[in-house]
Specification:
The protein is mainly beta. The protein has one helix spanning 40-51, and strands at residues 26-27, 56-57, 72-74, 77-85, 99-107, 119-121, 131-138, 158-165, 169-170, 180-181, 188-189, 195-196, 202-203, 205-206. It has one domain.
């Protein structure tokens, strides 16, 4: 992720700005922010360190792993896919043979994971760009499927919910049976101020059960009523 402040056409009387190079970006391959979610002071120190860079980068961990599609950003989370060839021979890593794909989800600002896993394996050998779909979900929990909210017993109302369609994910990793997920449900980031859970740990996403993340109605202007007395 590159944080470039020179994105608007303008004049540079003191000379052109220096190009942003790899050394200008913070290496977040070890996911340092994730390790400091229970250490506010350490988290703040990492924020200060990140502010001295012009962005961050992540080294793909597998041999020959490469990203072959564009990224998608939804609600401050960057989603992108990668492909890892099965061949370990360097000369064969550009051959389209059997391999596996993955979808990564990064906090756009901190470069840390926002879900339980940083990457999810996909069912496609070379996955495409995750596609944003505008769907809907229930506003509350209905475990007995009676179309009433379990907490208020009021009728369920559908709310706008963003979905990511594209690569089918193996949402269960490490087990003998993989469960396919046709749609990935993005969660909404919290901020800009830091939020904390009930245990005092830094919380980056709104994972409230039944809380939809989609289109919201927002008033951007105010009606003014003038009262004229005669």
């Amino acid at each position: 992720m590159i944080r470039d402040i020179n994105t608007v056409t303008g004049k540079f009387p003191n000379g052109l700005p220096e190009p942003i190079k790899i050394n200008d970006l913070m290496d977040i391959s070890s996911d340092p922010f994730s390790a400091k979610l229970d250490d506010l002071e350490g988290f703040n120190l990492l924020e200060m360190e990140l502010s001295s860079f012009k962005g961050w980068y992540y080294n793909l961990p597998s041999l020959g792993e490469k990203s072959l599609a564009a990224a998608t950003v939804v609600g401050g989370v960057a989603y992108f896919t990668s492909y890892t060839p099965a061949a370990t021979d360097t000369q064969l890593q550009c051959v389209n043979n059997t391999g596996h794909g993955a979808m990564y989800a990064f906090h756009l600002h901190y470069g840390t994971k926002v879900y339980d896993q940083l990457a999810y394996l996909t069912h496609q050998e070379i996955p495409d760009t995750p596609q944003l779909f505008f769907g809907s979900m229930d506003q509350c929990v209905d475990e007995n499927n009676d179309q009433l909210c379990d907490d208020t017993m009021e009728p369920i109302i559908k709310k706008s919910q963003f979905l990511l369609l594209g690569p089918w994910l193996n949402t269960t990793q490490g087990g003998t049976e993989l469960q396919a997920s046709k749609a990935f449900i993005p969660q909404e980031l919290l901020g800009p101020e830091l939020s904390f859970d009930e245990d005092g740990h830094i919380k980056l996403v709104n994972d409230t059960q039944g809380q939809a993340f989609g289109f919201k109605l927002q008033q951007t202007y105010v009606y003014r009523q003038d009262i004229i007395s005669h």
